[in-house]
Amino acid sequence: MSAEAAPPQDRPVLLREDHGGIATLTLDRPQARNALSEALIDALAAELASIAADRAVRAVIVAAAPGPVFCAGHDLKEMTARRADPDRGRAYYADVLARCSAMMQAVVRLPQPVIAAVEGLASAAGCQLVAACDLAVAGDKASFCTPGVHIGLFCSTPMVALSRNVAPKHAMEMLLTGETVPAEHALRMGLVNRVVPRGQAMREARRLATLVASKSAATLKIGKEAFYRQREMGLAEAYDYAASVMVENMLARDAEEGIGAFIEKRPPRWRD
């Protein structure tokens, strides 16, 4: 969570760079600890929608402007200002949280895999953003927390993504205590995939993104969607659903090409 001042209105709050089939989205509010302002939430939502329809993009990296904080969560100054509304901000808070939740779900529903590259602190909704990504790489000085309890505000929406990434008792400990978890502990918990020396998170995220981008985009789209859908099902239903997905996948052109290439001992030529 952040209570820092908002950036000048003419400065972009989100940067996008595309290279080699990888789109990098960089949170760019360093003077506000890269907090998720309304403008940043909307910018992320817009870029994710654009990327979803862009066949040239095969993987996505979410990073942040250099500094001690990856993302401090919601912009508390922006939110607190609406307590002066006639309804004490109820309608505004409902709208902002709904937009943020929709943006987090867009990360999960994006056809392309999304990798977080974390240097510094990922707090509250910033931790939620990391948890929403498919993969995460952290510098060894990165840290993670859901500190809402310190200010009387339980991190209920970050809880959704967090509890789907780590074991229940780990999630509850973070949520109930608000304590900060170092990168190595986040790795053991399953919140991140890799811990690398400080300053190397982006390099490792790009390596992973390049590896992912070399696969069939159509196959990864099928697999990512299936992964998240089956996780919400009972065991028998999940197996029935996964089997039906695999049948359709076996009939896809890229599966035919990939299996043929394996048998013929040659590199596959994906048609996506």
From TrEMBL:
This is Enoyl-CoA hydratase domain-containing protein 3, mitochondrial. One of its GO terms (molecular function) is enoyl-CoA hydratase activity. It holds the Pfam family ECH_1. May play a role in fatty acid biosynthesis and insulin sensitivity. Belongs to the enoyl-CoA hydratase/isomerase family. The keyword Transit peptide applies. The keyword Cell division does not apply. It comes from the Bacteria. Keywords: Fatty acid metabolism, Lipid metabolism, Lyase, Transit peptide.
